[in-house]
TrEMBL record:
It comes from Tachuris rubrigastra. InterPro entries: AB_hydrolase_fold, KANL3/Tex30_Abhydrolase, NSL3/Tex30. Residues 27-211 form the KANL3/Tex30 alpha/beta hydrolase-like domain. The gene is Tex30. It comes from the Eukaryota. Pfam families: Abhydrolase_11. This is TEX30 protein. Gene3D superfamilies: alpha/beta hydrolase. Signal peptide: none annotated.
Length: 222
């Protein structure tokens, strides 16, 4: 289902992947610095989740400024929260690369607004989180991650040139949030692995995301 979400004087293009049965939880998904919501990895994940009963809303926001992308993400969250068509108990924010930075930044912002005792946002999924620029490991983009309290899943390539394995594990050990890292063996930042097809890698990523979601949704209902 295609929708246009008002954003300032513009609109954000977005698409709902709707499960056959009514969904109680959703995932909001966005792309990295390049590409848009039709990036193959996002299409694959959205279809996978919807086929397993999780509503997925993916959107395009082309800005290369993280603050702008964060604002767009907030608009999409509010849109879904107020939606009459889809009544959800909660959503998980997910992004690839820069999109995951925007999601993390938004969750930190919302958690710092004391008036916002809102538990609509249940967790964060970071696909290829860009922890540092290539070859610039001294400047970590970890400030938002350290403030987050909700569960976080990282799915990263062990050969990601923007997320050195030891550095992410170090940041994770300092995080207050419940977190899990799933390493895709020998994958680069674009999740390409020599000798494996894209579909094969996506199957691994999608299954990890779904099983983590299920664990976190089940914990809520115990």
């Amino acid at each position: 289902v295609k929708v246009k979400i008002p954003f300032g004087n513009k609109y954000l293009d977005a698409i709902f992947s709707v499960p056959e049965k009514k969904s109680t939880y959703g995932v909001i998904l966005t792309h990295g610095a390049g590409g848009d919501m039709n990036f193959p990895h996002l299409l694959s994940l959205a279809a996978y989740l919807a086929s397993r009963g999780v509503l997925c809303l993916r959107f395009t926001c082309k800005g290369l400024n993280v603050a702008y992308r964060t604002k767009a993400f907030k608009t999409v969250v509010e849109y879904l929260k107020l939606s009459d068509d889809y009544k959800l108990y909660g959503v998980f924010l997910a992004g690839r690369s820069m999109g995951s930075r925007a999601a993390a930044s938004l969750i930190r912002q919302l958690s710092q607004n004391d008036d916002d005792d809102d538990d609509f946002i249940r967790g964060l999924i970071c696909l290829s989180y860009p922890l540092h620029r290539p070859k610039l490991q001294s400047k970590l983009r970890d400030e938002d991650l350290l403030f987050i309290r909700c569960p976080v899943l990282f799915v990263s390539g062990s050969a990601d040139e923007m997320c050195e394995k030891q550095l992410l594990e170090g940041v994770a050990s300092k995080m207050k949030a419940p977190k899990k890292i799933h390493w895709i063996d020998k994958a680069n930042h674009g999740m390409a692995v020599k000798g494996r097809t894209t579909d094969d890698v996506m199957e691994e990523i999608n299954a990890q995301v779904f099983s983590w979601l299920r664990e976190n949704i089940e914990l809520e209902h115990k």
